[in-house]
Design brief:
The chain has 10 helices and 12 strands. Helices cover about 35% and strands about 20% of the residues. Helix 7 (about 210-215) crosses helix 8. By secondary structure, the chain is α/β, with parallel strands linked by helices. It starts with a strand and ends with a helix. The chain is globular and about 65 Å long. A 5-stranded mixed beta sheet has the order 3-2-1-4-7, sandwiched between helices. It folds into 2 domains: about 1-105, ATPase, nucleotide binding domain (Nucleotidyltransferase, domain 5, 2-Layer Sandwich); about 115-285, Nucleotidyltransferase, domain 5 (2-Layer Sandwich). The structure holds zinc ion. The site of zinc ion has 6 residues, from loops. Its EC number is 2.7.1.59. It comes from Gluconacetobacter tumulicola.
């Protein structure tokens, strides 16, 4: 059995997970955001009944491989805290931490829709976009602890030469991204970004859900917005597929509930990659909200496999 926690900006979900993916002793407590001792105390209390077992954590943040410090924008109390080392000192137990998007991809590769695939790039389409890359059943560790962040690099770029006003008005605008760079795919990809894109393309203020519904009924303005969205997203994800060789792309997050959108994005991606496939690459993820916990459990299975 494996002790697991999935730490988000709202809740810490905890469970004891069996190697076959069954969970028990599930708990959920609010995440202490501004109080590091309370944060540590919450984790210590959740694990206390199992004093000698390692703890595996999926977190909405990135652990620096050199310092162990967690960078989690939504959990300010973790700033400058080497969480695994701190928990080890407090409890004596081994602690392993991974990014929650990486854990999602790992869980889908072990227990979910991507079971049996060697190259798996998992995609999260939510308020923003995220991803994780799993190769041969393991997370691929990246520079600075970062892998799979396909939403953050400029894809919308300023024109290389000055354009007249009429031509300039047809360009998708350069929006500033939360990561500090302008023109990231994330600035036009997530739910809020799509709503902003819809306004720029001449639409009225609407939720992403309403835009999808209008698109499916053949609304011309929504169709224009989705054409732009699919063009950028299809190109971005085609790059990812060509580089990672992924044979399946599990898709999770709020926008993945729009089935027709996932199908349309799959078509847009497959029209842009180098290889041809007989079936869809993008598949709706199978594990839902359990993916973080189950991915954390896979970290424990991996440790055992190495022993
Ligand atoms: Zn960015």
């Amino acid at each position: 059995m494996i002790l697991c926690a999935d730490i988000g900006g709202s809740f810490i979900d905890f469970a004891v997970v069996h190697p076959d993916g069954r969970t028990e002793h599930r708990r959920s407590v609010p995440t202490p955001l501004d109080n590091a001792p309370a944060f540590i105390g919450a984790l210590v209390a959740l694990c206390a009944p199992w004093p000698d077992m390692p703890l595996h954590i999926a977190i909405a943040g990135v652990e620096c491989p050199d310092t162990g410090i967690i960078h989690a924008a939504n959990i300010p109390c973790l700033q400058a805290l080497p969480l695994a080392a701190h928990l080890h000192r407090e409890t004596g137990r081994a602690v392993r931490i991974a990014n929650d998007a990486d854990c999602f991809a790992l869980a889908e590769a072990h227990f979910g829709i991507a079971k049996g695939h060697r190259n798996v790039f998992g995609v999260i389409l939510g308020t923003g976009i995220g991803g994780g890359f799993v190769l041969d059943g393991r997370i691929v560790p990246g520079l600075g602890g970062v892998t799979g962040e396909w939403g953050h690099a400029p894809v919308v770029i300023p024109p290389p030469v000055p354009l007249d006003q009429e031509a300039a008005e047809t360009l998708v605008p350069l929006f500033r991204c939360g990561c500090g760079i302008s023109g990231c795919l994330d600035t036009i990809a997530g739910a809020r970004a799509l709503e902003r894109l819809h306004l720029w393309a001449g639409g009225t203020p609407q939720t992403s859900r309403a835009i999808f519904e209008a698109w499916q009924t053949g609304d011309r303005q929504a169709g224009r917005t989705l054409d732009i969205w699919l063009s950028y997203m299809g190109a971005g994800l085609a790059h990812v597929i060509n580089v990672t060789g992924s044979t399946i792309v599990p898709v999770a997050g709020g926008l993945s509930n729009a089935h027709a959108l996932v199908d349309a994005l799959d078509e847009a991606v497959r029209a842009r990659i180098l290889t041809t496939t007989s079936g869809p690459l993008l598949r709706r993820a199978a594990l839902g909200a359990d993916a973080g916990l189950l991915g954390a459990a896979c970290l424990g299975l991996d440790i055992r496999a190495q022993e």
